[in-house]
Amino acid sequence: MVAQATPVNAAIGALRQHLEPLADLRHVSHLLVWDRETRMPARGSASRAESLATIERIAHERFASQDTGRLVEAAAAGLDGAPPDSDDASLVRVLRRRWEKARRVPGELAAELARAASLGERAWVTARAESSFASFAPYLERNVELARRYVDCHRGVERFRCAYDVLLDDYEPELQTEAVSALFEQLKSRLVPLIATLLQRRDEVSDACLHGSFPIAGQRRLVAEVVGRMGFQADGWRLDEAVHPMAVGLGAGDVRISTRWDESFLPSGLYAAMHECGHGLYEEGVDRALQRTPLEHAESLGLHESQSRLWENMVGRGRAFCEYLAPRAAELFGERSGLEPEALYRALNRVSPSLIRVEADEATYGLHVVLRFELEQQLIEGTIAVGELPEAWNDRVQRYLGLEVPDDARGVLQDPHWAAGMFGYFPTYALGNMIAAQLWEQAHAELAGLESQLSAGELTALREWLRARVHRHGAKFTAAQLLARVVGAPISVLPFVEYLERKLGEIYGPVRV
Description:
Blueprint: H1 7-38, H2 45-63, H3 66-77, H4 87-102, H5 107-130, H6 133-152, H7 163-171, H8 177-199, H9 216-230, E1 237-241, E2 247-249, E3 255-259, H10 267-285, H11 301-315, H12 319-333, H13 341-348, H14 362-381, H15 389-401, H16 427-446, H17 450-455, H18 460-469, H19 479-486, H20 494-508
Parallel strand pairs: 1-3
Antiparallel strand pairs: 2-3
Helix pairs in contact: 1-2, 1-3, 2-5, 3-4, 5-6, 6-7, 8-14, 9-10, 9-12, 10-11, 11-16, 12-13, 14-15, 14-16, 16-20
């Protein structure tokens, strides 16, 4: 006799069966984006945009359908007291919130957002290469127009207190613009005087060992070794090149990351790869029971960015890891490079404002994020026109970083996010720094001898701690919920600032402000 499924299992089973094709479509869409960024011929952009638009329309309409709503409610009714943090209860909770938002958006608008994002991203590649904002502006205007239409779909929803809340919610659920602004004001109030203090001592620290001749073949070997120690496995990962590094999970056993190379500046390829590998470890570490459901990816991009920033900076630019990294780099590039552990540690953490966000030091990085956060709010609210963006960008770079922007490529065109319509994403980078510092403190409290392991290039214990505490949960928890579970505190600026003061104090002397 075949046992009959209980009602709760039947309801959850029906819901999962309904969702599995949607997960497959998302994987296909992500694969097309990956190929576009790394392999696709330039002339394929128009047809690729149509393919992505079609997949998005089909997936969106199926997900936003009344069938999904009925299945969610049936599953909710059958939970029968299941713990709130169980897989089934989490699936219902997350799905209900996402479905309520998705059903307000017409399928054709979802498709047009995907189409415009794909066309915009390819136009950005050309515009960046030519340092021509004028050629890119029409694509950005289209993306801004569509973002405003998307916001309009949610007018009157109580939890969205301003237009930007709608967009932020796609990347950082249940966090409002007002709260982010308050965190960023605290961050600025601590970073600005800290940076000013350190700039007075700029000449005390040299980064000369990072500049020179670093053949790409040697960089590839170093990157392969480092990401291998982090958890990159050749039978389940790929590492490719892209104009702007990225990472994506395409389902169990298929993680893609990319980097970019600069023969004259060692950190570019290595730290981009470590950053993206941090993202990849999150995707790889999600519990297999959550695969092919909406829980198979992180709910919070701030949490996701915390992983990439932790590996890139707290590990990769930490004193302990430099003990391992410097000798390997010297072997590959020659003793003439001056890559001793202490010199490397000091060089990697030299505070000096720069034009490019992804190459910014840890102290000035947050200001790069804040200026983008402020500008994209103005774009969405209509208080600044697309054509005014370069001037507004350059003005903020001057005010926040004290730098003159020489051209669009090193200014407003340096990031692909607005080209791809990802308004609301930028704040998660600075939020990620804050969360990373909180997790870093907790990891040290729970992992005995962590610094000794890092100095030997042993990264397994940290990776497995992060997998158990963060990665395996996928989208079950928001950033606030997960931090409450792991560190027992809400997101905070203070641990990150204190981390910076300790680290930079080792290099510059006492820097507390």
